[in-house]
Amino acid sequence: MSQNVYDRVRANPKFTELVQKRSSFAWKLTIIMLVVYYAFILVIAFSPATFGQTIGSGVTTVGIPVGFGIIILSFILTGVYIQRANGEFDELNNQIKEEARSEK
C-alpha cells in the first residue's frame, strides 16, 4: 500500500472510532482480569487459611476451584473479546477498507 492509502485510513473518523472502542474494551477486560487475579494473590498472601480450608473430608482445598475459576474466567473474557472483535470491530474495519479503496 502507498503512503496515500495509509493517510486516508488514518484520516477516516471510523478508524479513530475503531481504535478508541477497541482500546477501551480491551482495557476494561484487562482491568477485570487483573483485579480478579491480584485479589486471588492478595488473599493467598494475607489470609492463606481462607483458600487452605479443605472441601468436605478430602484433600482438595478451596483454593483449587477458585484457581480453576480464574482460569475459566480468562477463557470467558477472551471469548467475549473475540465475539466483539469478529462482529463490531471487523465490521468497522471492513467499512474503513472499503472507503479507502473507493477514494482512489
TrEMBL record:
**For this UniProt entry, which residues form the secretion signal?**
none
Note the superkingdom of the native organism. Answer: Bacteria
Query: Do you know which Pfam families this protein is assigned to?
Result: DUF485
One term under GO cellular component:
plasma membrane
Note whether Transmembrane occurs among the keywords: yes
InterPro entries attached to this UniProt entry: DUF485 (IPR007436), Inner_membrane_assoc (IPR052959)
Q: What does the UniProt keyword field contain?
A: Membrane, Transmembrane, Transmembrane helix
Q: Where are the transmembrane segments?
A: 25-46, 58-82
What name goes with this protein? Inner membrane protein YjcH
